[in-house]
């Protein structure tokens, strides 16, 4: 899992004899709408102070070490951005002047390659992404030209991508420390059909009371995302150890030693000997083989049992277990005519597993009808571009003695 190989001149206690100043930042972590509270709790558990929570993102205070720790450890975030600027702009002139006023030399070196990766605007007078991108780029060039005393930038150094959000005329500019979205853990090279994003799966698991000493089955496991994310949570495997980040190469902001130290620490905290019962079923044998490969890449192949089995044959000897799943919606891989039977089979299985709890994400309007139960909670969210619901059907709690000693 550890992709951070020590450089030839790495020495414990220092990196190349350089100690970099730990800059203080506000850090922005976008997430799925409706799951801000889960991300907020994660950030607090890392020990950082929350500045505020907004729709679809959490902002917290941190330094360069926080950038590293957030990227490596957060399971539910989309990415980690350094908040470079916030100001009001109703005209392109105001946007230009607001961007130009930022001390960009604190972030972008003389040879840095910088551009606006994405611009978005909601309920604002400035609404053209292309124009926003162009003006922000020109304003940064204008500022840095005066600082560095040059008119032409080679931009042959490291990449410093920016993201600009304008909401109700309030401009926020974030420097993207992550690169590819954090849901790309590195274990899922082929996701199969209708996958659920890794960070969304992790957030939904974390919304349930499931713990590693309780049984867990996903009867529609596909490429294994729910099962793998649950196993990584159980074994305390940091989700970001097996991938790279844009800011790894920002030696002007982040001491590279921080990356090596953070991954080494995360590696030492893995519960390698943990034993738990996590299972995944699917009808397609090729998909099951894919799920096993993904589990192997994630380092949890010894923790999950995958098998080819229809939901109609769902059974388990244990009590007080959990079904956490992403069944077909009829949007992509199943026709609407087949859904009543699929959800009815799931409901019959739940009646056999009378002490179990069911949690599922679905956009199927008649899910509760065919499962045969009314959900206790109905959380609205999005799975990709599909508006869905996370339905909770909690079962009875195990007796106190079983809860204190573990399992069912």
Please tell me about this protein's structure:
There is one protein chain. By secondary structure, this protein is of the alpha/beta class. It has two domains: 10-176, VC0802-like, CATH 3.30.2130.30; 198-237 and 272-405, Vaccinia Virus protein VP39 (Rossmann fold, 3-Layer(aba) Sandwich), CATH 3.40.50.150. It is built from eleven helices and 16 strands. It has helices at 36-45, 64-73, 92-100, 129-148, 198-207, 225-234, 256-268, 285-298, 339-352, 367-371, 400-405; strands at 10-11, 14-15, 24-30, 50-54, 57-63, 81-88, 113-122, 159-167, 170-176, 216-218, 278-282, 304-308, 322-325, 357-362, 377-383, 386-393. The strands form three sheets. It has a seven-stranded mixed sheet. The chain has a seven-stranded mixed sheet with strand order 12-11-10-13-14-16-15, with helices on one face. A two-stranded antiparallel ribbon has the order 1-2. It starts with 9 loop residues before the first strand and ends with a helix.
CA-based shape: elongated
* Element-by-element helix/strand order: EEEHEEHEHEHEEHEHHEHEEHEHEEH
* Main sheet strand line-up: 4-5-3-6-9-8-7
Question: Span from first to last CA?
Answer: 32 Å
CATH topology of the largest domain: Rossmann fold
Number of β-strand runs:
16
> Regarding CATH, which class of the largest domain?
Alpha Beta
Q: What percentage of the residues does DSSP assign to strands (E)?
A: 15-25%
Biggest sheet: strands, sense, closure? 7 strands, mixed
Low-confidence stretches: 1-20, 404-408
Q: How many domains?
A: 2
Taking all Cα atoms into account, the compactness measure Rg is 24 Å
- What structural category characterises the helix and strand content? alpha/beta
Q: What is the CATH-assigned architecture of the largest domain?
A: 3-Layer(aba) Sandwich
The number of helices is 11
Helical proportion, percent range: 25-40%
């Amino acid at each position: 899992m550890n992709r951070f190989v020590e450089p030839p001149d790495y020495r414990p206690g220092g990196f190349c004899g350089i100690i970099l100043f730990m800059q203080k930042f506000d850090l922005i972590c976008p997430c799925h709408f409706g799951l801000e509270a889960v991300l907020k709790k994660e950030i607090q558990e890392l020990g950082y102070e929350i500045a505020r929570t907004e729709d679809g993102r959490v902002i917290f205070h941190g330094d360069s070490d926080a950038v590293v720790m957030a990227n490596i450890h957060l399971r539910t975030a989309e990415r980690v951005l350094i908040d470079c600027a916030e100001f009001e702009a109703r005209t392109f002139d105001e946007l230009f002047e607001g961007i130009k006023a930022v001390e960009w030399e604190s972030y972008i070196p003389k040879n840095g390659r910088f551009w606006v990766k994405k611009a978005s605007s909601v309920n604002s007078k400035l609404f053209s992404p292309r124009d926003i991108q162009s003006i922000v780029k020109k304003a940064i060039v204008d500022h840095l030209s005066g600082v560095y005393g040059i008119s032409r930038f080679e931009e042959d150094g490291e990449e410093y991508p920016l993201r600009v959000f304008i909401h109700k005329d309030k401009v926020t500019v974030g420097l993207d420390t992550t690169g590819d979205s954090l849901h790309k853990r590195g274990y899922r090279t082929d996701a199969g059909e209708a996958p659920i994003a890794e960070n969304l799966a992790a957030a939904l698991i974390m919304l349930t009371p499931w713990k590693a000493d309780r049984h867990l089955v996903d009867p529609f496991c596909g490429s294994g995302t729910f099962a793998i994310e649950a196993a990584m949570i159980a074994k305390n495997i940091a989700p970001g150890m097996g991938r790279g980040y844009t800011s790894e190469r920002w030696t002007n902001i982040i001491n590279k030693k921080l990356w090596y130290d953070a991954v080494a620490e995360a590696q030492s905290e893995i519960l390698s000997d943990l034993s738990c019962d996590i299972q995944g079923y699917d009808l397609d044998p090729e998909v099951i083989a894919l799920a096993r490969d993904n589990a192997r890449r994630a380092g949890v192949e010894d923790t999950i049992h995958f098998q080819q089995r229809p939901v109609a044959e769902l059974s388990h000897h244990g009590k007080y277990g959990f079904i956490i799943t992403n069944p077909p919606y009829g949007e992509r891989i199943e026709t609407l005519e087949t859904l009543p039977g699929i959800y009815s089979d799931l409901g019959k299985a739940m009646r056999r597993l009378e002490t179990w709890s069911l949690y599922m994400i679905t956009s199927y309007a008649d899910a509760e009808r065919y499962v045969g139960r009314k959900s206790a909670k109905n959380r609205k969210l999005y799975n990709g571009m599909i508006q869905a619901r996370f339905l909770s059907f909690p079962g009875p709690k195990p007796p106190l003695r079983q809860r204190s000693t573990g399992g069912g």
